[in-house]
Amino acid sequence: LDSSRIRNTVSLAAASSRDLLLVTERYPVFFCTSLSSTLQQVSRRTLSSSARAQLENKVPHKQKLFQEDNGMPVHLKGGTTDALLYRATMALTVFGCGYVLYALIDAALPKKKA
Model's pTM, two decimal places? Predict the structure, then answer.
């Protein structure tokens, strides 16, 4: 691109020591002090020396649970929650199939005129 064209398209002007005004041909964008204060807070949090509480690594336990050969299907190895979700899904599926059959039969048979 032509450098004079770039210079004409984007011009930077310092509004104050904390504010920066970026002016383009069509869209003025204003970065205010709230953005700079937010960035300062984020940088302070990520660079702070205080350590967060360490979480227990559950991945090895879950790998062992799901990889053991106990004849159980993998979608039920999660325990009671998986069993309840599986049964609820099957119940909704059976109900949905029954309702579809009812709707098809109702639509296929003509109504009796009284």
Answer: 0.46
CA–CA distance, 107 with 99 (Å, rounded to integer): 12
Assigned domain for 58 exists: no
pLDDT beyond 60 at 63? yes
35 torsion bin: left (phi>0), alpha (psi -120 to 50), beta (else): alpha
Question: In whole angstroms, what is the distance from residue 8 CA to residue 29 CA?
Answer: 16
Looking at the domain assignment, is residue 43 inside a domain? yes
Question: How many structural domains compose the chain?
Answer: 2
State the SS3 of the chain.
CCHHHHHHHCEEEECCCCCEEEECCCCCEEECHHHHHHHHHHHHHHHCCCCCCCCCCCHHHHHHHHHCCCCCCHHHCCCHHHHHHHHHHHHHHHHHHHHHHHHHHHHHCCCCCC
Range(s) of the domain holding residue 77:
70-108
